[in-house]
Amino acid sequence: MRQLRPVAVSVAAMLTVAVALAGESATAPGRKTLLMHYMPWYQTPEVQGYWGGHWAGWQQEHDPSQADERGLPDIRSEFRPLIGVYDSADPDVIECHLLQMKLAGVDGVIVDWYGIADAADYPANQRGSVALFDACGEVGMSFAVCYEDRTIQHLENTGALTPEDAEAHLTETMSWLDEHWFGDDRYVKVDGRPLLLNFGPIHIKDAAVWRRALGSVSPRPSFFALHHLWEGVDADGGYTWVHAHAWETPEPERIRRVLDRTYRAVSDDPSRTIVSALPGFDDIYENSHPYVPHLGGTSMEVSLDVCMAGPWEIVQLVTWNDYGEGTMIEPTYEFGYRFLEIIQNARREEAGGSFAYDAEDLRLPAMLLEARRRGGVSRDEGDGIRRMILRGEIDAARRALRAVTP
């Protein structure tokens, strides 16, 4: 019988998250750890010289500099970010995103990571990932990686890598992570080991290959793959994603029951499961995946409630900003701040009614971003306002922003 490496996750003692919210310990007994899945793959002419495919389409079918019939940017999505289209390497945008998450009670980010190869749009994604992780230190957020092994498949398909060299490339990728991120104090650790997710495995499905690549670094990462694939690669656990069958009818109690049953089926040991909460799923693909209605926020509310009520200690929020799939939790023209308010309310309920921030506070980071964009504050003044927010001096931050806001 296959021997699976044991995982003993304890939010109180073993899950290291370098973040505190206005005096609340992120490792308080019984407190869930909320990690936001984040896409670093957006580019704009102002920052990187071009419109990336995730805004404009891979054949440049859209022109984000032009308005659609609603007067909003023409992008590859049914939805629009409230702060406008942005570049993932823009430090002011990243600051806004992380502050919004923090004020809602989110502990850290899991970046959707495409590795270190110089191919496709991977270098631009890497610039966004590096900028995001660097900024985590400024706001006291943790981070982790969800690696896309389909990148190796792309490298093979384009002739940039031979199948015989795939394992060496995977091992090199693990070594890069170990050298640059795994040892960082901000990196999420489970049982003293860095948390590594894989979206799949999609391409590398040989457990022995993963075992050798992961074992090439020390300590070996705590490795989680998708909920239905993790056992096949001897992973430490599985994580759930989008389970559209729970929404076959939009009745909240049925959604709740099906999600709870689905999440518990991943493993009898809750420490082997990372569960997911999402606002909905509405993609723009030619061959669309099953639709999950947003239900005005009910889908987010019910799926998060299942995660908070269950025995699992880590919750992945799916996603901050995948506009192509319609799983955006960040504020949008269509939903405003509704999804962040739901997360904030869940934190308040978890804490017994007390939470340092309220719904109005969630608006402050976007006000700071707008002030920076307009030149209404100097770099130092903006940094000072950020520090006020982080210290919990919300009234002072609000006064400072109102003073420079038309």
Give descriptors for this structure:
12% strand, 406 residues, alpha/beta, eight-stranded parallel β-barrel, globular, TIM Barrel, two-stranded antiparallel sheet, single chain
Shape: globular
Distance between the termini: 67 Å
Strand neighbour order, sheet with most strands: 3-4-5-7-8-9-10-11
CATH topological fold name: TIM Barrel
CATH architecture: Alpha-Beta Barrel
Q: Give the helix/strand class.
A: alpha/beta
- CATH level-4 homologous superfamily: Glycosidases
Would you count the extended β strands for me?
11
What radius of gyration results from the CA coordinates?
Answer: 21 Å
Number of domains: 1
Strand content: 5-15%
The H/E string reads: EEEHHHEHEHHEEHEEHEHEHHHH
Can you count the helices?
A: 13
- Largest sheet properties: 8 strands, parallel, barrel
Helix proportion range = 25-40%
What is the average per-residue confidence, as pLDDT, rounded to a whole number? 93
CATH class (first level) name: Alpha Beta
